[in-house]
Amino acid sequence: MNIILLGPPGAGKGTQARRLVEARGMTQLSTGDMLREARTSGTEMGQRVAEVMDRGELVTDDIVIGLIEEKLEADPDGSFIFDGFPRTLAQADALGDLLDRHGTPLHCVIEMQVDDAALVARITARSTCASCGEVYNDLTRPIPDDGKCVVCGGTEFIRRADDNEESLKTRLLAYYKQTSPLIGYYYAKGALKSVDGLGEIDAVAAAIEEALG
Ligand code: AMP
What does the DSSP 8-state code read for residue 17? Predict the structure, then answer.
């Protein structure tokens, strides 16, 4: 089974993808995580990617399509949750071609709906465990009092360089201009399911499970 989690920055795609990994043994493919890894590689490409990401703009299609292609080639029988990919119509077409080539269908696209005010509040309060990537939020899911990650016990937490109001404005604009057309694209293909992404993590997870059938 392959599914796409679609939604603006801060909608909870990463959090819900991790839940699905646990519940269903699927593999999370987050292009954001892959790019954050690439930026620490010290290569010239990594440096260029870092600048684009920090501004909140989208990295070029060929780079992210190449990253996804590599992962699919490495695990042709995998069951994937695409998190933060595709983000443009060109990426959506490329993913369709890649899945066709591997003879594996797209089960559905889950659109996570969250209003803009909630996104800003969520993102500016967000931090992640440096070891395992578990997501915390100062307001709704604070780091435990003992300072240890509930998943891995890690004690270092980081705030993303692009989780500030300035980059967020650009990221939201990129979402509405370049990514939101995918809602109509997948609706027309009969693949779209929309869930309310505003509730508690467990409630959203339950809504996603129901949508997956
Ligand atoms: P995310 O972790 O999904 O919020 O992604 C963080 C940043 O990585 C985005 O703001 C973009 O700069 C870049 N990025 C992640 N996925 C993509 C994608 N599919 N296409 C282009 N840029 C991406």
Answer: H
Query: Which parts of the chain are beta strand (E)?
Result: 3-6, 27-30, 80-83, 108-113, 126-129, 135-137, 157-158, 192-196
Q: CB–CB of 5/83 below 8 Å?
A: yes
**pTM confidence score:** 0.92
Residue 42 has pLDDT above 90, yes or no: no
- Which has more confidence, 117 or 94? 94
Nearest CA to ligand 1 atom 1: 32
Residue 169 bears catalytic tag: no
Summarised one tens digit per residue, pLDDT across range 183-205 is 999 999 999 999 999 988 999 99
> Which residue ranges have their beta carbon within 6 Å of ligand 1?
9, 31-32, 35, 52-53, 56-59, 64, 84-85, 87, 91, 162, 171
Helix residue ranges, H only, 77-125 = 89-101, 116-124
SS3 label, residue 108: strand
Whose CA is closest to atom 12 on ligand 1? 53
The rounded Å distance from CA 9 to ligand 1 centre is 9
Question: Is 4 a residue whose pLDDT tops 90?
Answer: yes
Told to judge if 87 belongs to the known catalytic residues of this protein, a careful annotator would answer yes
